[in-house]
Amino acid sequence: MKTILQLKTMSRNFGGLMAVNNVSFDVAEGEIFGLIGPNGAGKTTLFNLMTGLTPVSSGELHYCGELLTGLPPHKIAAKGIGRTFQNIRLFKGLSAVENVKIARHIKTSSGLWSSIISTPSCRTEEKCADEKAWEILRLVGLSDRGTELAENFSYGEQRRLEIARALALEPALLLLDEPAAGMNSSEKHELTGFIRQIRDQFKLTVLLIEHHVPLVMNLCDRIAVLNFGELITVGNPADVQKNTAVIEAYLGGE
Amino acid sequence: MEEFLQNSGFLIVTMVQQSLLAMSLYYPLMAGQLSLASPGFYALGGYTAAIIGTHEFFTPLRESIGWLAFPLEWLVAGVLSAILALIVGIPALRLRGIYLALATIAFVEILRVLCLNLTITGGAIGIFDVPQLFESRWSYIWIFGPLLVMMLFFSYRLEKSRTGRAFQAIREDELAADSMGINPTRYKVLAFVIGAVLAGIVGAMSAPFLNTWNARQGTFDASIAYLAYVLIGGSRSIWGPLLGGAMLSALPEVLRPLKDSRLIINGLVLVFASIYMPKGIAGVISRLKRSLTWKSRKNGGEA
Q1: Longest CA span, chain A
Q2: CATH number at residue B195
Q3: Nearest CB partner across the interface for B162, out of A73, A94, A105
Q4: Which of A51, B35, B107, B220 is the most buried (most CB within 10 A)?
Q5: Which residues on chain B are in Cβ contact (under 8 Å) with A100?
């Protein structure tokens, strides 16, 4: 299978703390790749390194053969990497449909003046962005509440809206930071199906951080385990479950 | 009517002018940036118009183009403001919140001290006898009024545009906007430049209106006054600065019969408005409107 994302000895230290230490692995196109580890293992930091929110201390990130390290977040998003946040970061004071439309930014090009005088091409573009946003909202099941403010949505709905916003970028790679956090078990079950569905429909590669072990084991093709910033193992769910280092990290050694 | 305009014309034009200056703060705020630089660009625009209108170097130009010198002044003021806004904005907008506000106040002070000491700006005396565009003060409504309408239209379209959405995304969450492919620096600078150009043009229109221009135009006091307009009026829609600017600039005149105690009332209005109307007058109006439509919908459902 073709490699879409390649991490080469990526490191990040905050002062004396090695938050991410020499992490290297490849992600293949079309797979659902899980990133697990105890609290403080460096999972979210690794996501922030990949999306440019935190600069790397050393190491390289290659996406479709292109070097991404050093690029600002908006350029990385434009290459086709969408993400959600662990502590939901929606545009809370704006409506759901506006949240999704904002992410159409890179797929549209109207400048300030053509919007002010409302040129025909700008109007067409605006109409397309609008239709696309509603289509994505329908897909995540929020279209009946599209005009409501994002801050009025329930926790689970906000998580879905964040995924909708990331999908509006039409990414090839989707990074989900704890998508099931705060969901009940039936919602978690639904989420598994939903992630598979969008993977197939949008031809996505999905990289996800998740604490809920049954969900990860059930959903992911491969899993990487981090502990204290270091990569312990990468492999398919069955192998990872049997790995002694993983068991030690989670349950402690004897 | 004639008498009313004679007496109140100046005040009405001033209300429109102050509303426009309050609006110049609104654009950076739309992108979440608290910039108090407007008085600086207002002063720059005024000096541009005063210098083109009075300096002997421009005499041949004025004689050859006649009244067209006025639109030319607005244009030059707008362009100069945009250039200065780019030079100041690109480094200053790396700062956030109160630090940006402080940096922009410093910018206003630097410009003021500069104007106080240069010969071309007339030093402490300033520039007198700036040529008038109209004979009566009231007639200036014919330039400030259309500018106000244009800016309302501009804001209306902007809010529904790709650029306006980028501004709002940055205001709501800059990091998330960045991760959604929006270049925050670019749009913050753009918002800052739009505000600066507006303040510059208003300055260029105001120099003939006030007949004279000096370093007392565009000071720290003005920064605070414009901020008060936006706070009282509301910063979430263009109607906020419009209402705030018009009402607060009229307040001292309305309270004039109270003599010196009007300053107390003026202060009290500011304090109570910021406590009880955190989203400003525009916020209160939109809340009333929403509750009214909600009630009528409810009543309609029962009937």
Answers
A1: 72
A2: 1.10.3470
A3: A105
A4: B35
A5: none
Domain containing residue A117: 96-170
Residues B73-104 pLDDT 10s: 999 999 999 999 999 999 999 998 889 999 99
Residue type, A219: L
Considering only CB atoms, which chain B residues are within 8 Å of A116? 154, 157-158, 161
Query: Tens digit of pLDDT for each residue in A185-238?
Result: 888 888 899 999 999 999 999 999 998 888 888 999 999 999 999 999 999 998
Residue B71 one-letter amino acid: P
Contact B168/A92, CB-based, under 8 Å? Answer: no
Whole-angstrom Cα distance, residue B260 to residue A58? 66
Residues A166, A185, single domain; the answer is no
Number of domains in chain A: 2
Which of A115, A136, A170 is the C-terminal boundary of a domain? A170
Contact B178 A103 (CB under 8 A): no
Q: Which residue type occupies A101?
A: K
Query: CA angle at residue A72 from A71 to A74, to 5 degrees?
Result: 120
What's the pTM? 0.91
Within-domain flag for A86:
no
- Exposure string of A136-161, with b = 16+ CB inside 10 Å and e = fewer, is bbebbebbebbeebbeebeebbbbbb
Residue with tokens 């800016």: B151
| Same domain assignment for residues A177 and A253 | yes
Give Cα separations from B266 to B25, B75, B173, B248, B261 (angstroms). 22, 36, 35, 8, 9
Give the three-class secondary structure for A117. coil
Cβ neighbors of A181 (< 8 A, separation 6 or more) are: A86, A159, A211
